[in-house]
Amino acid sequence: MPSQSDVARKARVSFMTVSRVVNNRGNVKEATRQKVLEAIEELNYYPNAAARALNMDRSFGVGISVPQSDFIFAAPFYPALILELERSFRKKGFHLVFDSLERGDETDYRAMFHQRKVDGVVIISPRKGEPQLESLVRENIPAVVLYGNPERNSIPYIDVDSTGGIKLLMGELKRLKHSRVGFIKGEEGLPMAGERLQAYLTARNEFGMDEDKDLVFQGDWSAKSGAEGFRSLFNLSEPPTAVLCANDLMALGFMQAAFKNGMKIPEDVSVGGFNGADFSPYLTPPLTTLGQPIYSVAHAAAEVLVPRMMGDIVEIDKNSEKRTLSQAKLLAPKPYWRESFATPRDKSIIL
What confidence tier does 309 reach under pLDDT thresholds 50, 70, 90? Predict the structure, then answer.
């Protein structure tokens, strides 16, 4: 089994430099740090976690809140996100600890921290007004929120710009001469559901599109609800010429229902999704969608949380509603322009 001395020889640095990198201490140039990390990876070196934790009075654990089931359903990229989080924190000497307790138990994150099982917490897509967030702020427990904006408290957050992404899709549909665009929204409760709906409503107003309230269908993130959305929208006296879905799974269901009813995509209706699901380029036609910047989200989470866990950043005023750039990061989704978007036919489509 390789030792810390082996890593030092491989990286051509001192034993103490390796120790500083392993223990996330300062005074190491970034280029040197990267050399040490590469040597650690090549040698498959694993520090003695117990000795390290005892020496620094830390667990080097990061609590990961398992999000509510509807988030996992709405966001099939969740397993990939966990993998990237594990990689990002491992590079900084931390390991993940999963919280399997029921959401709503106000003591779970706090107990993990105070029992020294974790040094900080990553909270994925909390519900609005979740009481545990206030508890973390009150007890000064290092934390970061992913996929949600913890309003009215000082916890830093990292989110994807749903507003900018939906506006990008709507702008392209406007350029293609669509004026009547439907929207299948996700189930309420997740912050992203309301954000994506509001982005659609704002964009259609800004672009001078039809603002008929019947163009919005309440889905639940599932393919089945996407198919139900198709039946609802195309039973209207004037159906839409394009439909955006709040996630790719609902777009898949919508497209299948359209095919079963003899419609062609994009000739009869253009379709767009969100999340950049692995299956999206393999649909017929390939789906225009917005990809999740999973690597960037995970990397930013580690960059924001690790300094707080190591005590390098003093927490801001608990009563402050303002955040610095280091406390709030909004990342742009990546558009995938594919064959499911096209200029609408001249004649109306009525089933």
Answer: confident
